[in-house]
Write a structure and sequence with these properties.
Blueprint lengths: L5 H7 L10 H11 L7 E8 L11 E5 L10 E4 L5 H7 L3 E3 L1 H8 L7 E4 L4 H4 L3 H4 L17 H9 L2 E5 L5 E8 L4 H17 L10 E8 L5 E3 L6
Parallel strand pairs: 3-4, 3-5
Antiparallel strand pairs: 1-7, 1-8, 2-6, 8-9
Length: 230
Amino acid sequence: MAKISKKRKAALEKVDLTKLHTVEEAMAAVKAANTAKFDASVDLHIRLGVDPRQADQALRGTVSLPNGTGKTKKVVVFCTPDKEAEAKEAGADYVGLDDLVEKVQGGWLDFDVAVAMPSVMAKIGRIARVLGPRGLMPNPKTGTVTMDLANAVKDVKGGKISFRVDKFGIIHSAIGRVSFTPEKLAENAQELLNLIVKMKPASAKGTYMKSLTVASTMSPGIKVDPKSIK
């Protein structure tokens, strides 16, 4: 059994890992239990009563977190030359088409979000096997396949995140950093959770939101009471 450090033991004594916390309590607890010396990510893990194999229950979407994520995301835009200036002015880190597709085929993945024009998706299809498994494939449902490249880039830079349910029926999403106040983390969490509640598929049976857990990169999971969602 791995030995627990004094620092981690002291942090664990500050929280009750068996208790169901309100959203606000959980955010304060995850900060107290964090032992990282860096500004760790705070992530929400939402287990839903859905069957992702059913098309209408394979939930995915986007949400703009009111307080951002605390991380500036690198955005690549796949577009024709006439749209490059627009994308750059909006804050895109990389713009282009054939050259970028070739770079990705060669193993380059130094970006967090990919945005593309509808007319270039046929070319993006050549790298779908690379982008898809990493959740980087542009998609109209998440607003990343669009002619309005400027707004798409600004949304991502401003705290808009994408989420999707995995094959186990769980959504994993970053909602901020441990440097955020509990209030800001709670606001971000509520924004995401409210949207997921609204997205409940009509065909989903039984308990929809089965469990909620929040954790930082260096903390144990803190249980959240689904009934505390406002």
